[in-house]
Amino acid sequence: MKLEKMRCKKEMEAEKEMRLKKEQEVEAMEGLKGVKQLLVEDDGMGTVEIILIIVVLVGLVIVFKSQITEVVNNIFKKITEQTNKV
Questions:
Q1: Are residues 27 and 58 in the same domain?
Q2: Is the Cβ–Cβ distance between 68 and 61 less than 8 Å?
Q3: Are residues 25 and 49 in the same domain?
Q4: pLDDT band for position 80 (cuts 50, 70, 90)
Q5: CA angle (16, 21, 24) in 5-degree steps
Q6: Helix (H) and strand (E) counts for the chain?
Q7: Alpha-carbon distance 59 to 68, whole Å?
Q8: How far apart are the C-alpha atoms of 4 and 60, rounded to whole Å?
Q9: What is the pLDDT of residue 68?
Q10: How far apart are CA 43 and CA 22, in angstroms?
Q11: How many CB atoms lie within 10 A of CB 54?
Q12: Terminal CA-to-CA distance of the chain, rounded, Å?
């Protein structure tokens, strides 16, 4: 009788572990569905992308400010020289 109770207890524990594993697998799958849904949905992505592009452009302007200024000045100098010829 005692042996039978021990077997039942072990079987119940094994079933409980199996249920917990299945629940964890289901939760993991639901988590993957959430990640997949997050990747598929692109609400608000446009705003973030535009802000990142602006930040990169501003950074480039700050880094290459003197070179950009020199190029722009040369362009305007050539424009004014050529307009004086006409």
A1: no
A2: yes
A3: no
A4: very high
A5: 125
A6: 3, 0
A7: 13
A8: 77
A9: 93
A10: 33
A11: 10
A12: 115
